[in-house]
Amino acid sequence: MSTHDSDVHTISPELPAMFDGMKLAAVATVLYIIVRCLNLKSPTASPDLTYQDTPLNRFLLKSCPQLTKEYIPPLLWGKSGHLQTALYGKLGRVSSPHPSGIRKYLPMQDGATATFDLFEPQGDHRTGDDITMVICPGIGNHSEKHYVRTFVDYAQKDGYRCAVLNHLGALPNIELTSPRMFTYGCTWEFAAMVGYIKRAYPQTQLVVVGFSLGGNIVCKFLGENITNQERVLCCVSVCQGYSALRAQETFLQWDQFRRFYNFLMADNMKKIILSHRHSLFGGNSAKKIIDLDLSRLYTATSLMQIDDSIMRKFHGHSSLKEYYEKESCVHYIHNVKVPLLLVNSADDPLVHDSLLTIPRTLAAKKPNVVFSLTLHGGHLGFFEGAVLFPQPLTWMDKVIVGYANAMCQWEKQKPPCQSTHLSESTCAEEKA
Description:
- Helices cover about 45% and strands about 10% of the residues.
- The chain is α/β, with parallel strands linked by helices.
């Protein structure tokens, strides 16, 4: 009996210590996971820039400090590309304003009706010139999205008129007037909007802006025909992937949860397509072509499956490979002669690192291109803030307007021969 009591008294003091050790290990494990998932040990840094040393680029880096200053995301979560992307996807922006615009309707040759929203400037531009930003949003987006509204309000207050394309089929309250909706690289609607702005405002100069898929569209539009670059001061593309063909394999990988994002975007695309099922598939001719593929749409779990069964057929592409090849800006962007700023984030979970060799190589070869790669920012996030709560304006908003302001100032004060619209032969003639 006494031996039994002795054993009990010997063991019992060790049990609380063991449980305390387990608790400590559990807490340490949780903290380790949090630090790793939130990437808290990652440093903050200024953007990694690729560019050629030219008078224009030296002026740009001096006049647009956002490109050379340290980008500081919110301390507790801003270094996670996933949380930056998720917050953008869920909220768009914090305390987003409600700029007032006028919706314009443009009939297209194939019976489709393009729409865009026009927002007048809230004051004079700092150069005294008439400047219009022509803006192409991301996949399935439009002028009513919070991130677009926040950016437009900021640009208006800096003296810019803004025209924002509503992707064909993206607005839930606007019916399609033809069996076609927006695709990865169709530039028809954006071209119609730009044409309207040039006719309605013959004195205005253009700043072209594209977000994500919109970045692909605007770069492709400018590179398709040199006349598309007339009266364009500069172009900014943010968070695009440049080549859909190269991206499709990475979109099926679980690395950085890219396959999960693919599923979420595919689900959103299905909802948009099915909301217009009568316009897209109601006609006899369209129904005969796509009826069988509609069943594949319901079971699709990736954008590639939707693109193959539905999207590529709007423009008659015979295969998914042909669709991605023809609609990617990588085959056109080298034709862009105007100043071009390409912005990406290294922790963007949607754009694989291998795709960033495209803008980096382009900027190294072409004097008009600057490639800016931030360490953090996610996909269209780029939130700034002290610890927890982000600011309404993001680094992305500030850098686009800052770059546009620098380009407008350069155009205003530079010697005539250094105009971005003059060819080398014209300059040689002037010097002679």
